[in-house]
C-alpha cells in the first residue's frame, strides 16, 4: 500500500495539553486552567496546583527539543493550536500580547528549520476564562467579534508562514460539553436548549467569517472545519434503530453540512422546530455562512451504536455518548476500537461533501510502562503499533476507493495531559514523557518502540503497513 505523493504525515497536539507556562509570557487564565479534573467535575474558582496543565509537558520551554524529535520521525506536518489567552489574555482586548505572538514565531522558526509544515488550530478548547465568566462564552453574540479580532491578529502575524488553518477543534463537541467546547459558564444541567443552539449558531457564523477573513488576508490559504467523526451502527436490524441511527448521525453531520454547504440543512431546521428552539439569525449571519471551507478535517477514535429501545448501555469515556457495540473490543478507557469505521467515515464524507479530507486526530490512549531494552529506556508499545497500523491501512483503503485525503496527524505524537480526564497516565505518544498523574517526574523524553515504526511508515509513504 502506498499513499499519494505529498501525503502529509505528522502529529497533532493542543496548547492547553502540552505547553505549560500558564502564567508566563503575559498569558491570561483560560478555561482549562480551572478544569483540573477535565470534564468529569465542575471547574474550580481559580487555577490550582493540582491541574497538570499548568506545566503540561513543558513544551513552552522544550519546543525545540520536541520538534527535533518530530523531525527525526520524518514529520511533514505538525498540527498545533495557539492559546487564545496567550495572545489576548482576557479575550476582549483591542491589541494582542506581543510576548505571546513571539513565542509562536519561535515555534514556527523550528518547524521551518526542519521543513515541517504547520497546520494551526485557532481555537482548541482553551477560551480565555474572562470570556466564559463575563459573557457566558459562545452564548453571547459578542464572542463573534472577539474571535474575529483574535483570528485577524494570527493571520496578520503568521499569514506568510501558515497556509493551512482550522477554525474550531471538534466544533460539534459543544452539544455534549458546552464548557469545554463552547466556554459556556452556565452549568450544563441548567443550560436551556435555546441558549445552547444559539451558541452553536454563533460559533458557526464566527467560523464562516474567519474563513472569509483568511481568504482576504492570506495568499494561497486553505481553511478547514474540524469535527468529531464517529460512524453510528444500529444495535439491531430494527427499522426503528435505523431511524435512531439517522437522527444521531444528523447531530454530527449538521456541522459539516453547514460548513461545506453554507446553509442550515432541512433536517436541522426541523429538529430545531420540534425542540421549540427559535434562533436569532440575522441577514448578515446568512450571508456570512455562505463562506464555506476548503477542506474538512476530523478526529476519529471510535464508532458508536444507537437504538430506539430501552436497552441503552452507554459507552464510558467518550465525549459524545453512544451505545456499546457488543462486537468490538475497547481500550483501557472504554473507547471501542474500530479501524474499519475510519474507512467508512472517509468514504461517506468524501461522497457527501466532495471536499478534500484530513485525518487530524487518531490514536490510542493506554497505560505505558517505561522499561530498559539493550541499555535504552523505552516503551514496548506493540498494542499502539497494531492500533495505528490497522487504522492507517483503512485510510489507504479509502484512498484506493477514490477519496482525496490530504494527510494524517496522529494524536498525540508525544505524551500529553488528557483533555477528558486531565491524566498523564492516559498516554498516546510515540515519545514517552516522564511525568505522572501526581505531577512528579523529570519531564525527560524517551522514544517508544512505535517511534521507529512510525518513522518507517513515513519513510515508505505507507508501504510498510500490513493488512
Describe the structure.
The chain is an alpha/beta fold. It has one domain: Glycosidases (TIM Barrel, Alpha-Beta Barrel). The chain has 14 helices and 14 strands. The protein is globular.
Give me the CATH architecture, please.
Alpha-Beta Barrel
CATH topology: TIM Barrel
CATH homolog superfamily: Glycosidases
Helix content: 25-40%
Point out poorly predicted stretches: none
Q: In what order do the strands lie side by side in the largest sheet? A: 1-2-3-4-5-7-9-12
**Globular, elongated, flat, extended or rod-shaped: what is the shape?**
globular
Structural class: alpha/beta
Number of helices: 14
Classify the oligomer: single chain
What do the pLDDT scores average to? 96
Main sheet: strands, sense, barrel: 8 strands, parallel, barrel
Taking the alpha carbons of the first and last residues, their distance comes to 9 Å
Order of helices and strands: EHHEHHEHHEHHEEHHHEEHEEEHEEEH
How many structural domains in the coordinates?
Answer: 1
Q: What Rg, in angstroms, do the CA atoms define?
A: 21 Å
Number of strands: 14
Tell me, what is the CATH class?
Alpha Beta
> Strand portion, in percent?
5-15%
Protein name: Glycoside hydrolase family 1 protein
Active site: 361
Keywords: Glycosidase, Hydrolase
Family: Belongs to the glycosyl hydrolase 1 family.
Amino acid at each position: 500500500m502506498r499513499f499519494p505523493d505529498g501525503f502529509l504525515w505528522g502529529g497533532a497536539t493542543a496548547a492547553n495539553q502540552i505547553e505549560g507556562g500558564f502564567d508566563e509570557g503575559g498569558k491570561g487564565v483560560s478555561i482549562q486552567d480551572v478544569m483540573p479534573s477535565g470534564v468529569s467535575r465542575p471547574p474550580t474558582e481559580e487555577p490550582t496546583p493540582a491541574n497538570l496543565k499548568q506545566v503540561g509537558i513543558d513544551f513552552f520551554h522544550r519546543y525545540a527539543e520536541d520538534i527535533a524529535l518530530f523531525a527525526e520521525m520524518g514529520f511533514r506536518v505538525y498540527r498545533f493550536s495557539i492559546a487564545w489567552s496567550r495572545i489576548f489574555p482576557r479575550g476582549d482586548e483591542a491589541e494582542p500580547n506581543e510576548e505571546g505572538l513571539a513565542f509562536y514565531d519561535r515555534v514556527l522558526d523550528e518547524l521551518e528549520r526542519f521543513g515541517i509544515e504547520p497546520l494551526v488550530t485557532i481555537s482548541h478548547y482553551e477560551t480565555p476564562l474572562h470570556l466564559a465568566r463575563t459573557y457566558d462564552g459562545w452564548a453571547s453574540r459578542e464572542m463573534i467579534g472577539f474571535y474575529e479580532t483574535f483570528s485577524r491578529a494570527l493571520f496578520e502575524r503568521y499569514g506568510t508562514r501558515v497556509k493551512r488553518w482550522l477554525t474550531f477543534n471538534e466544533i460539534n463537541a459543544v452539544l455534549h460539553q458546552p464548557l469545554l467546547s463552547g466556554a459556556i459558564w452556565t452549568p450544563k444541567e441548567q443550560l436551556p436548549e435555546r441558549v445552547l443552539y444559539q451558541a452553536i449558531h454563533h460559533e458557526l457564523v464566527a467560523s464562516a467569517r474567519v474563513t472569509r477573513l483568511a481568504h482576504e488576508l492570506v495568499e494561497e490559504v486553505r481553511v478547514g472545519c474540524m469535527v468529531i467523526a464517529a460512524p453510528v451502527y444500529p444495535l439491531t436490524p430494527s427499522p426503528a434503530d435505523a431511524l435512531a441511527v439517522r437522527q444521531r448521525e444528523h447531530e454530527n453531520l449538521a456541522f459539516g453540512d453547514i460548513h461545506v454547504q453554507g446553509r442550515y440543512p432541512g433536517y436541522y431546521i426541523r429538529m430545531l422546530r420540534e425542540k421549540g428552539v427559535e434562533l436569532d439569525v440575522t441577514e448578515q449571519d446568512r450571508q456570512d455562512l455562505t463562506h464555506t471551507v476548503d477542506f474538512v478535517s476530523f478526529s476519529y477514535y471510535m464508532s458508536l451504536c444507537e437504538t430506539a429501545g430501552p436497552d441503552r448501555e452507554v459507552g464510558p469515556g467518550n465525549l459524545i455518548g453512544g451505545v456499546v457495540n457488543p462486537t468490538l473490543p475497547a481500550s483501557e478507557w472504554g473507547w471501542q476500537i474500530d479501524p474499519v469505521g475510519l474507512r467508512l467515515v472517509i468514504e461517506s464524507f468524501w461522497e457527501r461533501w466532495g471536499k478534500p479530507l484530513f485525518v487530524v486526530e487518531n490514536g490510542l490512549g493506554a497505560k505505558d510502562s517505561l522499561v530498559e531494552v539493550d541499555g535504552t529506556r523505552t516503551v514496548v508499545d506493540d498494542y499502539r503499533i497494531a492500533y495505528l497500523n490497522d487504522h492507517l491501512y483503512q485510510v489507504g483503503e479509502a484512498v484506493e476507493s477514490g477519496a482525496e485525503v490530504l494527510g494524517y496527524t496522529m494524536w498525540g505524537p508525544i505524551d500529553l495531559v488528557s483533555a477528558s480526564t486531565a491524566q498523564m497516565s492516559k498516554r498516546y505518544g510515540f515519545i514517552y514523557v516522564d511525568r505522572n498523574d501526581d505531577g512528579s517526574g523529570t519531564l525527560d523524553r524517551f522514544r517508544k518502540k512505535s517511534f521507529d515504526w512510525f518513522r518507517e511508515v513515513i519513510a515508505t509513504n505507507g508501504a510498510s503497513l500490513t493488512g
